[in-house]
Amino acid sequence: MDGSGNTAADLAPHELRVLVAVGRERGFSAAAVALGTTQSAVSHSVRRSERKLGAVLFERGRTGAVPTPAGERALGYARRVLRLLEVMAAEVRATRADAPAVPAGPLRIAAFRSAALHLLPRALGRLAERHPEVVPEVRIVREVGRGTAGEVLDGRADLAIATLGTTSPVPPELVGGVLLEEGYALVHPAGHPAPRTLPLVDWTENCTSYTREWWAGQEWLPPATVEAEDDGAVLSMVGTGFGMAVMPELSLVGAPPSVRITDLGPDRPTRSVGYVTTPELASSPAVRALIRELRAVAG
């Protein structure tokens, strides 16, 4: 609370839009151009928001404005609040007095590569047939660090398809559920007489998998000698005879004939693929409709 009695609850939507613009443009002048206002108006709005929140949100410097840790947190909430206002307006417009809200409007989705390629398209096809008023906006996000769930936390996505597990649970601020359990398999060049003697090829997203305990117990698996950018690059390397890999099932959909997929047996590692969203957006008709379709294609 500042000296005027204002609190964070008094932050107005236009103040949130200013914060988001500064965070996006990394500067007060650039944010002013994007918003069609003046640099002094942007500076004044940010200072007012900082007083209300009781924290410095941006480090000012010659190179622009960089969010502080408190600023990053505030920006995530600001994006989420602004998105809720958009959803509220769309749902109110789409609701008739005698009917429930109809799924409509933009639906922002974050997904890791293999899910975006092999799981999401079928769900979006079904969604388009049933609810053509919904307009999906899909971003592919690497499942490292905060991954796809971080996009929802930061207000950049309404729903994310994420890997879930003991080391990557649903963040406490979000809600979600498991869509499918996928197993891992050994992938190697077709026709190779001794594939387990080949070098191991891996990629960063796989390296952060919670199957590491299983990997550590496999004496035949050497340390990875090559780390590729993504699972598609791994498959390409394996197909040319460069090495072997241990990969999850979604990454192996549509694998080329130059590779052979070998089951790792009943003790093979698995990972859970699910969805996460905010508690508020979980009740949105568009989000609920997509979750239904994701469950249908995953089941």
Describe it.
With 299 residues, the protein is of the alpha/beta class. It has helices at residues 13-25, 28-35, 39-53, 69-94, 113-118, 120-130, 147-153, 204-207, 212-216, 231-239, 285-298; strands spanning 58-61, 64-67, 105-111, 134-140, 159-164, 175-189, 201-203, 226-228, 245-248, 259-263, 270-277. The strands form 3 sheets. Strands 3, 4, 5, 6, 9, 10 and 11 form a 7-stranded mixed β-sheet that branches. Strands 1-2 form a two-stranded antiparallel sheet. Helix 1 (13-25) packs across helix 2 (28-35), helix 1 (13-25) packs across helix 3 (39-53) and helix 2 (28-35) crosses helix 3. It is globular. The chain starts with 12 loop residues before the first helix and ends with a helix.
Describe how the helices and strands are arranged.
Blueprint: H1 13-25, H2 28-35, H3 39-53, E1 58-61, E2 64-67, H4 69-94, E3 105-111, H5 113-118, H6 120-130, E4 134-140, H7 147-153, E5 159-164, E6 175-189, E7 201-203, H8 204-207, H9 212-216, E8 226-228, H10 231-239, E9 245-248, E10 259-263, E11 270-277, H11 285-298
Parallel strand pairs: 3-4, 3-5, 7-8
Antiparallel strand pairs: 1-2, 5-11, 6-9, 6-10, 6-11
